[in-house]
Amino acid sequence: MAKKAVPTHAGMPLLALCLQLGAAAAGMLKADRAQDGGGSGEDTLSHSLTLVQRLEALLVQGNGSDVSLRVETPSADEVKMIQAHSLVLSLQSPVFEEMLSSRNSSALVLKESSDCAAVFDKFIRYLYCGEISLRLDQATPLHRLATKYQVLGLQQGITQYMTQNLARDSPSGHVAGWYEYALQAGDVTLRDSCLQYLAWNLSAVLQSGEWVAISSQLLMSLLQRSDLILQSEMELFEGLEAWIIKNEPDGLTAENALRAVRYAMMPPHELFRLQTQSSVLARYQESVRDLLYMSYQFHSASPLHMAKYFDVNCSLFIPRNYLSPAWGSPWAISNPTRDDRSTSFQTQLGPSGHDASKRVTWNALFSPRWLPLSMRPMYTETGAMQPTRVEGGRPRIIITPATSSADFAGVNFQKTVLVMAQQRGKVVVKHVYNFHQSTEEIGDFLAKADLYRRTSEYLIDSSLLLHIVVKPLYQSLITIKN
């Protein structure tokens, strides 16, 4: 089978390039030699760094170049010329390979946006050296170039860089912008990572300048989620109110956004304050009147009694992950690999005003090395006790009520554990686990968390930071949605 020819402008430039690279790589040897034990082995002498340096010198100096890249912006107010080598471009990019095979001159004219043109030299340098330095604001244009020219290694590397730098501080915020770009580019991994970060750290996002600049599409994607992590539903409404005032959306967009607020999760006195003081709610009150009416009824009557006359099987009555004390408690576990720990806290029985004054006391037990029954060693001696915790196990949390009550009838308590981590000097939510009583139900609780290394992102001042949220759901009435 004939080998496919690498496109070149002329024979000599390619020959010169190969000779220069060969000289640089002359020190790269593989040799067999007799080992002390009489056998033979292979040793490697690597001078790959020297090779990379010579490649970079070829790019900088233009030695042996056989193609000129003319990078133009749409407004044609900026032109960038780069002397390059068709061999390198073709090896790294199938798009360049196709363009070079069909060219009829020594120059390629490339039309790029202004932001892509500004980083094009970085992009080309990566093709020669296999490394790149970048800032947060350069990630999107470099990812766009890697996608356009099908440089998959760079594309995947920048996606990873972006997902690892979501928590990094920037003057005007960057996560929402990256989400919009990922949506446009079809990068599902980046899109989902950005959306999850925004949802799980919404309280911080609401306080940033980035919030009022998000698109209406992203706004609705967030408002419809049940896994939002924030102080309260009132905090979400206030953020939405600020967004509407700033962006002045069309009436339909504003109404749809306001109808996604879960007013039933606000106590009656907060609802009354909204109706009397919120300028946005006063303007659009007719569009949410039915939701406010149902919320007042939800708080005034027993949920089971209300279900006889109204359909309450909707997201309006499903709590999100609220951080306020009525819904749960933070828990800092110092030296989490040492031994079992326990804590107690109280929550309201349910979101309905009918149940809000009733309190439930919860006991939580953390075991750093728990083994399921099926994985424990067997003991054959009569009357021998099997240990409940042994070496080599995995972390587990059990959350149970301290007492039972007839008030629990018809209420299903979903437990949610938020696991914090420190990224770029900022404490963020790293994982969210949902279960009924024990994290053993989900199987992967803290499975990949490093709780031993002092520099682990999971240890903040030598402690594992958790936040337990108890979400009361009227089980005969409500279907959980996300």
Inertia-based shape: flat
Distance between the termini: 55 Å
Largest sheet: 5 strands, antiparallel
Quaternary state, please? single chain
- Measured on Cα atoms, how large is the radius of gyration? 30 Å
| DSSP helix fraction | 25-40%
Percent of sequence in beta strands: 15-25%
Mean pLDDT: 85
Considering the chains and any ligands shown, give keywords for the structure.
482 residues, alpha+beta, three-stranded mixed β-sheet, 18 helices, disordered N terminus
Overview of this protein structure:
With 482 residues, the protein is α+β, with helices and mostly antiparallel strands. It is 38% helix and 22% strand. It is built from 18 helices and 15 strands. The chain has helices at residues 11-24, 48-61, 86-92, 94-101, 114-118, 120-129, 139-148, 152-164, 175-185, 188-200, 202-206, 216-223, 233-247, 251-259, 268-277, 279-300, 303-306, 353-356, and strands at residues 29-34, 40-45, 67-72, 79-84, 107-111, 229-230, 321-322, 328-334, 341-348, 359-370, 394-401, 411-423, 426-435, 459-460, 463-474. The strands form five sheets. Strands 8, 12, 13, 14 and 15 form a five-stranded antiparallel sheet that branches. A three-stranded mixed sheet has the order 4-3-5. Helix 8 (152-164) packs parallel to helix 10 (188-200). The longest helix is centred in the middle third of the chain and has 22 residues, at 279-300. The protein is flat. Residues 1-16, 22-35 and 384-389 have low confidence and may be disordered.
